[in-house]
Amino acid sequence: MFIHKGNDEMYEIDIADGNCEGKRDAGEIVNKALKKLDPKFRIVVAMRLLQGYSTRETAEILELPVGTVLSRLSRAQEQMRKIIEKF
User: Fold this and answer.
1) Pair 2, 11: CB distance under 8 Å
2) Which residue from 33, 39, 48, 71 could staple onto 83, CB 3.0 to 4.6 Å apart?
3) pLDDT digits (tens, 9 = 90+) for 40-85
4) 3-state SS class at 20
5) Residue-by-residue DSSP string for 32-67
6) What does the pLDDT read at residue 31?
7) For the chain, which residues make up each domain, given as ranges?
8) Torsion angles phi and psi, residue 5, rounded to 5
9) Which fold has domain 2-85?
């Protein structure tokens, strides 16, 4: 999965690298759910939860207010929950 970072920089995230079958299946489900998210939510999830950036760092990199990052993360988590429930 490619995630937009900054102005024109792109980087790839693949979280389906677990050693056991259960982890791989869960990673595949999460990857599929992430792909269904709106890109503005996907980037926040990727940066905060997968890449480990703080809320402040995420806001600075994306040039967004901290409150916007927090609301997008919350909305993304709710959407992810609904998407994953369908699997």
Assistant:
1) yes
2) 33
3) 999 999 999 889 999 999 999 999 999 999 999 999 999 999 988 8
4) coil
5) HHHHHS-HHHHHHHIIIIIS---HHHHHHHHT--HH
6) 87
7) 2-85
8) -135, 125
9) Arc Repressor Mutant, subunit A (1.10.10)
